[in-house]
């Protein structure tokens, strides 16, 4: 069985010891306060292939950085984008796209844009997405952001990144997660969201399990602790991996 490896190497990436050599990613700024230090945000921004604000995400970018960072696109139903922010970014060359459908969120509308760009570029592979601001604030928004990890799991890798958490989906199968314990951990969790139950086998954690059934109302692994740099997880259905982040 194929083993899927996740390797973010946050420290190397954020210290810019090395130019980012991972797969190219697209940065989506969601409508939440941007809580990173300037250095970290700068690195996330600089290394992105394309930068997109989901509607009111642009307000935060503008308020936080006073127009230093100009996104390629602002997209959404534009019910959150302030007029002063719209005018400023428009004057700086940002493409502002109104998509008024009320069946999908502005996050999803931004991902639709990425698919459109990939078709235009006739790309055979899909860009990874790094979405910031996905896990704070409104619970329905947080769940919707996680829902899109499931919906798009066969299409591309999406990472939800906040100042405190990294969240991504593990599809059914075997995974090696290479953790950078300078920044990731100590706590982590495996969440069988959207499935009836998952049968899990793990190594590298303080509380490992072997062929154990995990489901809400029975047992879920939260407040677990990384004890190795490499965590292995085997699951028979998709589950959510979450790890605490402590940026120094
Ligand atoms: N409080 C929040 N917590 C987590 N994610 C959020 C939150 N607010 C917004 N987002 C994310 O940012 C995106 C853009 O925000 P925006 O406020 O424009 O939302 P929306 O999709 O128009 O939904 P709504 O109209 O219900 O607010 C959302 O689609 C969502 O992914
Ligand atoms: C069953 C159902 N529930 C809620 C919505 C509303 N909704 C979902 S995404 C979205 C866009 C937010 O900008 C809105 C308004 C719907 N359409 N269908």
Write structural notes for this entry:
The structure is a single chain. With 248 residues, the chain is of the alpha/beta class. It has 2 domains: 1-22 and 168-248, Sandwich (Jelly Rolls), CATH 2.60.120; 24-156, Thiamin pyrophosphokinase, catalytic domain (Rossmann fold, 3-Layer(aba) Sandwich), CATH 3.40.50.10240. Helices cover 25% and strands 32% of the residues. It is built from 6 helices and 15 strands. Strands 5-4-3-2-6-7-8-15-10-13 form a 10-stranded mixed beta sheet, with helices on both faces. The termini are far apart. The chain binds adenosine-5'-triphosphate (ATP) and the ligand Cc1ncc(C[n+]2csc(CCO)c2C)c(N)n1. Ligand VIB binds at residues 77, 102-106. It catalyses: thiamine + ATP = thiamine diphosphate + AMP + H(+). Its EC number is 2.7.6.2. Residues 173-239 form the Thiamin pyrophosphokinase thiamin-binding domain. Pathway: Cofactor biosynthesis; thiamine diphosphate biosynthesis; thiamine diphosphate from thiamine: step 1/1.
